[in-house]
Amino acid sequence: MGANNIFISYNLFYFILKRQALKKSVILFNRDENTFYYKGKKIILNPLNHKVLKQFLAKKTLFLPISHFNEVLSDDLDKENYLTVNKRRERVFKDLSIELSTLLNVSKEEIFVIRNNEFDRRIREIKINIPLKEHATI
What we know:
The chain is of the alpha+beta class.
């Protein structure tokens, strides 16, 4: 019983420390330069990842329907194949989670929170799990 309590305490302590580290990992967006920064250093992102991160910045506390990003990542939804747009979206989410997890030194599973919509279970929603802040100057 004692070893079990130690194991539970250790896991709880580890979880709290990881959560605090994640909260301190703030990514700043400079409106004037249209650039993201982490710890004062410019983050180099490809254009699609940049667009997606800006969408998360605009709605940082909200869960967004994953299909919302189809419009963001496509030039013309009417002309592009639905499967192509979906694969592009999934690739961008994967690339962004890998880039941010490497930058912030957290696991890639901690970058996004994905859930099903409360009212319509067919709709998947996504939210970024990293603090984003917007500043005019840094």
